[in-house]
Amino acid sequence: MEPSASSSSRRLLGIDWGTSNRRAYLVDAAGTCLAERADDQGMLAARPDFAGSFARLLAGLEVGADIPVVASGMVGSAQGWREVPYLDIGVPMEALPDNLVCIDDPHAGRPCLIVPGYAQRGAHVDVMRGEETQLLGAVALGRRDGWFVLPGTHSKWVLLEDGVIRRIATFMTGELFATLSAHGTLAPLMAGDGDDDAAFVAGLDAARRGAPLSNALFGVRARVVTGAMPAAHARSFASGLLVGAEFVAAAGDAPLACIGSDALQGRYARAADHFGMTLSGLDPDRVYCAALARFLDRIST
Amino acid sequence: MEPSASSSSRRLLGIDWGTSNRRAYLVDAAGTCLAERADDQGMLAARPDFAGSFARLLAGLEVGADIPVVASGMVGSAQGWREVPYLDIGVPMEALPDNLVCIDDPHAGRPCLIVPGYAQRGAHVDVMRGEETQLLGAVALGRRDGWFVLPGTHSKWVLLEDGVIRRIATFMTGELFATLSAHGTLAPLMAGDGDDDAAFVAGLDAARRGAPLSNALFGVRARVVTGAMPAAHARSFASGLLVGAEFVAAAGDAPLACIGSDALQGRYARAADHFGMTLSGLDPDRVYCAALARFLDRIST
Predict the structure, then answer these.
(1) Measured between CA atoms, how close is B21 to chain A, in angstroms?
(2) Given A211, A223, A242, which is nearest B214 (Cβ)?
């Protein structure tokens, strides 16, 4: 980078490049989002021509050839553009900008970097790729401690202590819900899109009783065929079981923050309240841009 | 029935009529199996013309019009030939023959009866339909106490005390294994048919650590992508997780019997051994025929 460039002219393009979708943010040094673009050119759609997909994204954004790019998410996985090894959770979040990996630059002169994910190893093995960038943003915004939950297809729960990861726990909540809705015994019961708060809470309570999900989920059917629950409540009850399992597993009284859409924050806040926990919300775009400012700061120095 | 018929001439045709398959057994008063026939005309294939499907089965078996028939399983469900209400678990197993339900007889003069399932209600809701007949057979053979596991698509664990059901717990073990093998994140890892004992045991150990299955199952992927486990072991590890969850949930030191195929008995015996439990095997056909003898005894008096 040009050391004499004024701070106000420095910009960075960040790409949250996941499995199915991609979202690009152009930010300035303060992390203010100047432009944003989302498309469905996630890893699965982009491969194997990541360079071409990348070029089309940049052409659409009309960003200058001097703007550095940082990409996070599955783009750095074994099925992505370039596999970037996981960092060990012992590496503090704020050292993440020191560990970006430069890939072959399809646009000469432009730094193009991929963010590594994190892995926890040992008896408990878990990984994340993409969420680490949002967590760095949370840390940059002063949130250095407690549980952070990032709900979705794979809900990530990450416990931070002074900006260092102590635990990663991934729950296949969204995926199991979608799979059970589409295939097998529960699918006919989970049709439709009804949402019932009391049934969701009943599912949370059933999760708290601690039966394995393979047993508790059959309880959805057992309740319906015995008349203990109307079929219209099956979907919300199953959701409560799966979300409740996350809360049951997250022991302790650490503060809890949710990085997710308003709808998901609402759902998780409802569950947190039922489990006697307080959940604060963090906007996914805001934390992502805060992390990008940290990356830009590192690249510029 | 003709009261003067000699004991040796009394016979009964039992039909284990499940969701996908059907198996018929002709037995004498001692429960000796005189003839057996299996086909794929389960509930899903037979409906809506159960009477026609039933007639074709009987024609193939060439049983006289005076032979009574008892059918168990999903044939008595809401999607079956005739919905038969569940018995409450308070009804002793040996009272099951008193609770058979006569359906409209498509062959005049022949008693045609359906076996009700059992339901446990209250905070823990669970049901079974079909397994109760095998359990009655176990009781008839003198096995009145302990856990009985009937592995399969839906593994049933039933706790008996002096021939009375204290607990029904259904685990969607086989269904989840099949679904995860076919759809979603784990499916590519679970391809093939490899079986590795050490990986199965590692799955049992992971189950014992008690994380929710939605989390523990993601550990299959996390282990593979971090190099902690070869992908070829994913299938056995996932099996260990799901089977292990059953054993973790079955607390206490009650004796444990498995009613299932030799292959399944072997798998569950391996798990039982790892959990410090002793598992005895019961042959599914033998217990079914022992139950049929009890039904015949009741019908004949």
Answers:
(1) 16
(2) A242
Q: Least CB-CB distance to B126: which of A125, A185, A219?
A: A219
- Beta pairing, strands B33-39 & B164-171: unpaired
Query: In angstroms, how far is the first alpha carbon of chain A from the final one?
Result: 8
B98 touches A at CB < 8 Å: no
Which DSSP symbol is given to A4?
T
**Beta-carbon neighbour count of residue B55 at 10 Å?**
13
What count of other Cβ atoms lies within 10 Å of the Cβ of residue B8?
Answer: 9
Q: What are phi and psi of B157, to 5 degrees?
A: -110, 125
Chain A, nearest residue to B170 by Cα? A215
- Looking only at the bridges linking them, the beta strands covering B155-161 and B164-171 are antiparallel
Going from the N-terminus, what domains does chain A have, and what CATH number goes with each? 7-143+285-299 (3.30.420.300), 171-282 (3.30.420.310)
pLDDT tens digits, one per residue of B189-216? 998 888 999 999 999 999 999 999 999 9
The angle formed by the CA atoms of residues A291, A297 and A301, to the nearest 5 degrees, is 155
ipTM of the complex: 0.93
Q: Do B154 and A222 touch (CB under 8 A)?
A: no
pTM of the model: 0.93
Contact flag B215-A119 (C-beta cutoff 8 Å): no
Asked whether B250 and B157 are in contact (CB, 8 A), the reply is yes
To the nearest whole angstrom, how far is the Cα of A160 from the nearest Cα of chain B?
Answer: 19
**Nearby residues of B198 by Cβ (< 8 Å), 6 or more positions away:** B233
Q: Give the pLDDT confidence of B53-112 residue by residue, as tens digits.
A: 998 998 888 788 889 999 999 999 999 999 999 999 999 999 999 999 998 766 667 889
Question: B121: which chain A residues are within 8 Å (Cβ-Cβ)?
Answer: 226, 228
Count CB neighbours of A104 within 10 A. Answer: 8
Instruction: Name chain A contacts of B237, Cβ cutoff 8 Å.
Output: none
pLDDT digits (tens, 9 = 90+) for A7-40: 447 999 999 999 999 999 999 999 999 999 999 9
* Residue A105 pLDDT class (50, 70, 90 cuts): low
Give the nearest partner residue to B86 out of A78, A184, A226, using CB atoms: A226
Residues of B in contact with A86 (CB under 8 A): 226
Task: Tell me which residue of A100, A30, A111 sits closest to A72, measured CA to CA.
Answer: A100
Q: Are strands A112-114 and A69-72 parallel, antiparallel or unpaired?
A: parallel
CA-based nearest residue in chain A for residue B185 = A175
* Residue appearing with tokens 């193939």: B60
Terminal-to-terminal C-alpha distance of chain B: 8
pLDDT of residue A4: 40
Give CA–CA dist B285/B291, Å, rounded: 10
Q: Are B70 and B291 in contact (CB under 8 A)?
A: no
The answer to whether the Cβ–Cβ distance between B226 and A77 falls below 8 Å is no
Structure tokens at A76: 């750095």
